[in-house]
Amino acid sequence: QVQLVESGGGVVQPGRSLRLSCAASGFTFSSYAMHWVRQAPGKGLEWVAVIWSDGNNKFYTDSVKGRLTISRDNSKNTLYLQMNTLRAEDTSVYYCARGVEVVRATAGWYFDLWGRGTLVTVSS
Amino acid sequence: NFMLTQPHSVSESPGKTVTISCTRSSGSIASNYVQWYHQRPGSAPTTVLYEDNQRPSGVPDRFSGSIDSSSNSASLTISGLKTEDEGDYYCQSSDTTNSGVFGGGTKLTVL
Q1: Is any Cβ of chain A less than 8 angstroms from the Cβ of B102?
Q2: pLDDT tens, residue by residue, B59-91
Q3: Which of B33, B44, B101 sits opposite A115 (nearest CB)?
Q4: Hey, is the C-beta of B100 within 8 angstroms of any chain A C-beta?
Q5: What residues of A are in contact with residue B50 (Cβ under 8 Å)?
Q6: Which end of chain B, N or C, is less packed with Cβ atoms under 10 Å?
Q7: Which pLDDT does position A48 carry in this prediction?
Q8: Which residues contact A46 (CB under 8 A, 6 or more apart)?
């Protein structure tokens, strides 16, 4: 079964750390770029980070640079998000999503497979 | 980077047709493909259209998409509305492979 399953969410105090995982199954994980997308309570979707299939390229939205780190272990078919120095505004459901590159005049992404998400709550 | 602006909400009756717009703030809407995702409360998003107007397997042909360079916008049209179409719809595009951009979402009510 083709699926992504996130884990690792929970309640954490501001300034602390948390690591999210996303277990992939049913497809060749090492062939795809992977993304994290988050959604604050009652808000819209926000792209967070991408990691290339080989793990050599990583990019982040500005608000998380230097605090959140995306990584992957292709031998374990698992994507990670290390979250340090957490802030209240990081409170969200975090989704992992499989990325397919789409190219017209410029290149971009299409998210063709999503996990169910894991909730991170940053609160004292 | 650019922004994608959607109407906050739309509503229509069952069996009717509704169109949701997605306007790009800078750069050409035609420079990269637009995708549309549907999200029901408490659930993950699912794709209803990719590459402007392509439907993934299982999405009915009641869903269609287009782009309009004159208004620099994309549109999602749903015909023959059903109550199961309710939820939030998000457009998404990119201008590099270094990022992704989502619209703010549109809440569709079928009443």
Answers
A1: yes
A2: 999 999 999 999 999 999 999 999 999 999 999
A3: B44
A4: yes
A5: 100, 102, 110, 112
A6: C
A7: 97
A8: A37, A38, A39, A40, A61, A92, B102
